[in-house]
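Support request, priority: normal
Reporter: lab tech (M.K.)
Component: structure prediction queue

Hi team, I submitted a job for Lipid/polyisoprenoid-binding YceI-like domain-containing protein from Psychrobacter piechaudii yesterday, and the status page still shows it as pending. I've pasted the exact input below so you can check whether something in the sequence is tripping the parser. The sequence length should be 147 residues. Please let me know if I need to resubmit or if it's stuck on your end.
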Amino acid sequence: MIKGTFNKVDGTINYDENKPQNTTVRFTVYTDSVDTDLKPRDYFIRRKELLNTKQYPTIKFTSSGAKLKNPREGHVTGKFNALGQSKPMTVKVTLTDVYTQSKTEPSALKFKATALVNRHDFGVTAFPGIFGTTIPIVITGELMPAK
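Reply from support: The job had stalled in the queue. We restarted it manually and it finished. Here are the results:
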């Protein structure tokens, strides 16, 4: 399995500790920032038959709902927009840690979010022997209170 990251991402998470179901998430990933630690492979992935970064410079996720399964796990539903198409997506979110930086700073939450994307759903069928059909998405991050 080839692993990579996107080095340029913008987004906001509005998390209400008292009403987690009101959580909203919005992310934009800049496709030309793909990084697999091998530049020739990155250029290959950016090509028209795959990410098509020239025509579609961003991938977006916008939430429409959130539901807690327990105090440390939940699901965020929304729309995943890639390659000019919009599809529903459910993202599993797990709280992995809560920590305090200092006595004067509020607590921060570390999380892991996972989802699966079928690349054929977005018209990406090229190179079946190189890339799998189902692409896992894994996002790790920290929620810091707004100042």
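The first strand starts at residue 5 and ends at 6. The mean pLDDT is 91. Let us know if anything else looks off. Ticket resolved.
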